[in-house]
């Protein structure tokens, strides 16, 4: 009987130790509830919205600003570059084309070549490497 009593006292944990163990688990649960909870955040894999250069700089093409419009014109043939080369959005590309035609009718811009005073202007895009391949 005495031996059984010693066995029980040896293998049963003291009450104070048990109490601390319980306290630790309770704090862990508290941490899980506060710091480790899922957080509302923006999608980090979201694609950035692409804007054309005229929308980005908030420029509306105008037939009187023929120096800007001449940058959308080929120096060899005077043709207006397509949207796959200029990278403009549809609205701005249509506006640029109509304003170039208006400027040509006002004799601000030539039809079949680019004004030689604007030949060294900085390039907004590279006609040799289109932004998108042509759709045909
Ligand atoms: Zn745009």
Task: List the keywords.
single chain, 136 residues, mainly alpha, 30s Ribosomal Protein S18, binds zinc ion
Task: Describe the overall structure.
- It is a single chain.
- This protein is mostly helical.
- The chain has a domain at 53-118: Irregular (30s Ribosomal Protein S18), CATH 4.10.640.
- It is 43% helix and 0% strand.
- It contains 6 helices and no strands.
- It has helices spanning 2-11, 15-34, 53-56, 66-69, 83-86, 90-105.
- It is elongated and about 70 Å long.
- The termini are far apart.
- Mean pLDDT is 82; it is low at 18-22.
Topology:
Layout: H1 2-11, H2 15-34, H3 53-56, H4 66-69, H5 83-86, H6 90-105
The structure holds zinc ion.
Write a compact overview of the structure shown.
This protein has 136 residues and is mostly helical. The chain is built from six helices and no strands. The chain has a domain at 53-118: Ribosomal protein S18 (30s Ribosomal Protein S18), CATH 4.10.640.
